[in-house]
Every structure is written in C-alpha cells, then in structure tokens.
Design brief:
alpha+beta; single chain; 4 strands; globular; about 130 residues; 6 helices
Length: about 130
Amino acid sequence: MIAVRDRLDEFGDAVIAVVTFAGHPRLSAYRDHLRVPFAVLSDVDRALYRLVGAERGTARQVWSFGTLRMYARLLRAGRRLQRNDDDVRQLGADAVVGRDGRLRYLALPPSPDARPPIDELIAALD
C-alpha cells in the first residue's frame, strides 16, 4: 500500500481501500502506521479473503528470503518493527474492481514481499 500511496496521483479518481482482518478498534492505528490517505476496512471473518482465494501461507512462504530482505530494508531505512498479534501467515491479495462492480484484476502473491507492480494496478483501471 505504501507503493500505491507514493503514486496516488496516477490513480486519478479511483476509490482505493485497504482490507485487513484486524478488528475495528485497530483500524486507525493500522492506517496511521501505513500513512495512507485512503480507507482501511475490516474483514474480521475473512469472507473477502476467501472470496478472492487469498490463503494462509506456509512458514516458508511467509518468511521467504524476499520477505526477510524486505524487513532488512525497512530496518535500514529507520523503520521499527512492531509486535504483531495478527495471523502473520494470512497471505494478501491485490485487486482492482471496476465502477461496474466487476473484478478487473486480481493478484494472489505467494509471499508478503511479492506484490504486483503498481503499473499493473494502474493499467487495470482503464
């Protein structure tokens, strides 16, 4: 989401939202942590995760070399890691839904560090 935030002007008038399975009381903290100007929604029972096919990863997927490298970059950049009580094995998804409600793009990354290029998300808006 940080990559989307950094190129927000290229998304035009698209409505952008982050969906997390964190409970409602934690949504503000999640939004502040990511420093995103768009909506953060809660899917505690993970109905949307199941609908799009976002599965729980294995320990190897979640703690892949790429994920560890990503965290090392964040630490070098001055970010502090925070304790996470959430299900760290829940894999995410990146989706673009058209104004007509139809799914235009879906990526199911195999690990937390394997997000699709932002250019693909922007292209799916057309």
